[in-house]
Amino acid sequence: MNLKLKYKELINYPYFFLLILIIYTCFESCSGCSQSGIREASRNRNVNVVERINTRHSFQEKTTIKMEKVDGVYQIPVEVNGVKMSFIFDTGASSISISNTEAIFLAKQGLLSKEDIKGTQSFTDAIGNISQGTIIVLRTVKIGDRVLHDIDASVVNNLTAPLLFGQTALGKFGKISIDNNRGEVTFE
């Protein structure tokens, strides 16, 4: 029981994710593999540029994504650093937000490194609670045929926090329209 209490205290520690990532990178065996060049190339791209990956479309065309209603909220498919995830489409969230679980998974896959950590910040949730989180940079955020590069995101110090697709990404798309009847969101 005492061990369980210490584990709960550790998970709620404000710098839990940062601590896990530092420990993980200390034991990581790769010291300059071929991926380091890819990582550096990604860092040198224009920050926050939306690009299309499907060259047959012009930039004026729309991208429509099907939303899925789950437990009363709309979720959309998003790829983060090449990993497919389902995010809550949240126009009220100030940033993309992921839990420690996703951040640790990305780190274990080599898709999130200590260079991607910008620091910590206090956040206010929907019910007014203030908590510490870690600010990271997501190298790629793909929705439909559009890709954003180097987008700030927050890691919530909670293993079960929902994934929120907020304004650090949504604000880069310009005009967005929602069709609740069809369950679609359109990026123009």
Describe the protein's topology.
Blueprint: H1 2-11, H2 16-27, H3 35-43, E1 50-52, E2 63-66, E3 68-70, E4 73-80, E5 83-89, E6 96-99, H4 100-108, E7 117-124, E8 130-143, E9 146-156, E10 164-165, H5 167-170, E11 176-179, E12 184-187
Parallel strand pairs: 5-10, 6-9
Antiparallel strand pairs: 1-9, 2-12, 3-4, 4-5, 4-8, 7-8, 8-9, 11-12
Helix pairs in contact: 2-4
Shape: globular
Q: What share of residues are in beta strands?
A: 35-45%
Q: What is the CATH first-level class name? A: Mainly Beta
Rg calculated over all Cα atoms = 18 Å
CATH superfamily: Acid Proteases
Distance between the termini: 54 Å
Count of domains: 1
Low-confidence stretches: 1-8, 26-48, 54-59
For the report, how would you describe the main beta sheet?
9 strands, mixed
Approximately how much helix is present in the residues? 10-25%
Q: Provide the CATH topology.
A: Cathepsin D, subunit A, domain 1
Number of helical segments with 4 or more residues: 5
Mean pLDDT: 78
- Strand tally: 12
SSE order, one letter for each helix or strand: HHHEEEEEEHEEEEHEE
Which secondary-structure class do the elements indicate? alpha+beta
The appropriate CATH architecture is Beta Barrel
